[in-house]
Specification:
heterodimer; A: alpha+beta; two-stranded antiparallel ribbon; B: about 500 residues; alpha+beta; six-stranded mixed beta sheet; 10 helices; about 25% helix
Chain lengths: ~190, ~500
Amino acid sequence: MRPRRALLFAGMAIFAILAIVASVVVMRFTPRTGTRAAAAPSPTAPAPPGRKIKAHLYYVSDKGTKLIGIERDVAYAENAAEQAREIVAAQVGPVAEPLVSAVPAGTTLRALFLTDNGEAFVDLSREIAAAHPGGTVNELLTIYTIVNVVTANLPAITSVQVLVEGKEVDTLAGHVDLRRPLTKNLAWVQ
Amino acid sequence: MNARSLPLLCVFFTLALAAALLSQSATPPSLTLLSKDGRRSLTIVMSGDQEFVGLDDLAAVFQLAVHEESGAITVSYKGKTIVLTPDQTLASVSGRLISLPAAPTRRGARWIVPLEFISRGLAPIYDARLELRKPSHLLLVGDIHVPRVTVRYDSVGAGGRLTIDATPRANSTVSQEGQHLTIKFEADALDITTPPLPTPANQDLVQGVRIVDATTLGVDLGPRFAGFKAAAQPVDTTTRLVIDVIAAQTETATPAPAPAPDLPGAPPPTELPPALNPPSVSIRTITIDPGHGGDDEGVRGAGGAKEKDLTLSLARRVKAVIEGRLGIRVLLTRDDDRNVPIDERTAIANNNKADLFVSLHLNGSFRRSASGAAIFCADFDEAARKAAASTGNERLPTFGGGLRDIDLVRWDLAQTRHVDQSMTFASILEQQFRGRIPLAEPAIDHAPLRVLESSNMPAVLIELGYLTNTDQEKLITGEAFQNSFVQSIYDSVLRFRDALASGATQ
């Protein structure tokens, strides 16, 4: 009996170890939804359909050297990060004449996340740099369209760092320093 | 040479020097050799953007022996050798390596070498002193005193002031003969641009300055001239001669000419200011940054003009004028069509301890109507200013023992220490541009521009105008606009130098 009992204990021990290992593996590789709510809001919390907020979007002034603010309806979202996404997506989307956008056509929002100290990281597709026509004023208008549309509509966000294709860039077209987050600057809005 | 032929030779030599110096601006350019024995001209050959001279011409003048064998050119002088390799910019001078801006090139049956071959290759092994002055196409041979002379004229109250700088120092005497002043320098020749002074707008007092002979300038005086006071003073390595020209009292019914608007606080018209400026905090080096380049074209106009080409050609013209007329060293961050990273552009200015940084650009707008030139200074937000202020002094050990206080600033915020002087220069630029080239409104702006933020000296970025505006493109590519722009930069540098000297920007 003794050897059979020992064998039973050994079997139970091996089973227990395997169970622990398996549970650890399962826990590690299961996505923990909801833990980074601010950075990546859960897609399972959509806004109630049809609800809108008023937001100021920015376009190029008639003289071409400043921005003008235009009030537009933008889809309502439950939290700041998702609301910022809705606003930036509306800003970089196509625009009808006679408005002219300082964001090059084809630019899309890849991602947007917030930090605890009020910085927004806005990740845009390559077109914002590759399709940019150049010129210091053009570049300033493009950058401050993005910076101002986030900071002016969402007061909790104080600065914006623009990323291109998920990476920090030096400049868009050789002028404006994008190594640091930029704060709201309404001097570029007439 | 016998004693009887000496006076004749001197006359010939003087006339020849004057002729050589007067013909400097003629094309094609030539290199003028000046020595105690006389003067010679060497033909300059252009290849790309570089100036070359024939190696055979140099051999004939300097008694060099040139041999070409097994793919190398050997230049010998009194037992010393220079070894050049075709298509290589490196050369060996008595066993030491030197670098040339371009490689020796075969042109027909002869070899041509860049002008710098004379200063970097030949000068170290030659018996006599060789001094190459590339901007003025002069080569000084032996112990010969040829100061660079610059002349400027300013209206001061009802009178006027001529400021004549000679570098290195040279004494001079001023005398009046009728309606002319004669300024005679104690020198072998003068290194001076032609004409020495652009024609003044108001010719009542001074009508112009001309070269009389190799060492003499003449000032033609106008009808209101009543007298002059001249005084000279050494400033660094320069002798500054200031001639205050006094105007005759005019009828009180006619208002006195307005004082120059850029001399705030000028004394009342009847009283001239002290004759001498205080010793200057001089500007020795300026870095001009032609924006974009290479595969980065910058803005392209509807008519095909490219920002990168315009910025380079204008930067070269500014360099030629400032170096030629003021004797200030001007460095370009690029002198050909290539893309230089932004940080490298700033590093060139910082590493060469430039006293001023000017980046040249052309603007673009999403709207075709946008127009006008603008001057940008760096813009730092509160966080950046705090970060810059939080560095400051640090006490570090030195090699010889002991401690030394080092003034530290983050390299990407270096401009925070120069914002006031940058703004002063921007204001001077605005004054000089106004009335000469179209300006945007506002003409001065602030923005977080990367090329300015790391510059450890007063720095501005100039947008000359909008290439996206067809009318502006035509204007900017025209000769008249470009001349006005270059002259405005020159005038601004002069006034900024004066502002620094007077302590107005401290």
